[in-house]
Fold:
Amino acid sequence: MSNHNLLMRLEQRASEADQIIEYLKQQVQLLKEKAIGQARVKEEKKLMLENAKLKNDIEELKRQLLEKEKRRGVLDVPMPSTQAAVEYSSAPPLPSGPAPAGPAPSGPGPAAVQTPPPKDDSKKKKPEKKEKGEKKQATPNQDEAKVDVSRLDLRVGCIITAEKHPDADSLYVEQVDVGEAAPRTVVSGLVKHIPLDQMQNRMAVLLCNLKPAKMRGVVSQAMVMCASSPDKVEILDPPSGAVPGDRVTFQGFPGEPDKELNPKKKVWEQVQPDLRTDEQCVATYRGAAFEVNGKGVCKAQTMVSSGIK
Structure:
């Protein structure tokens, strides 16, 4: 009987060993799949970074082309003055007409007929100059449109990656998905407030229509919105369910944002003082919440009654 019991135990242990071996095989297979998945994610991140750099290069080339075109346009401006010179050169026949008073029937007759048309042309051209002046006066009225938060292009974004700025210890350089074909490069002074590991793959609210600006050699194409005080900074969190590209709107302040804010008009500087978190940490503008339609409001984690910038 004892031998039979021993055999039974050995068979049980053998079957348990087979189960353990099978389990270990499954775990090894899962680890392989995870490793492959992580490699793919790294490749995707590399490709996205390369695409972002290419986009920046293209934008820089576009700016250079625009600058050259503007320079060419400035060179073309003197064209009206040449017309004025032609008119001026056509004017001298006026004194030449009255001078030959003796042979009036033969020469001066046609000269007198030819001189009035330039006068008429000049009279016609004066109103055109007034019309141009009126157009110039109309543009300031458009620029002096109402200044409120609807002028800001605030969107939900996802910070894909973040790394230290190569030339500035206090700055991060981030690649941010804001719902466009390629991620935007964003430079943020958050090193002293947000750890690097908390900047990876996190949702945020971004101001997307500031004029791109170089920060220590890197062009920043947006700004991460944060609740801010002298001692503490917190990135605003979009509502759960929000996706990159979702527009942030404000009840009572309808309208479409500017394509790009004109720094000379200081729209951001006028709107920013009214951006604050309330007693429930909700981000607001003059009491209206930062809202993603149908999904909820944007909030700070702990900061109440704090400015937002």
Notes: The chain has a mean pLDDT of 83.
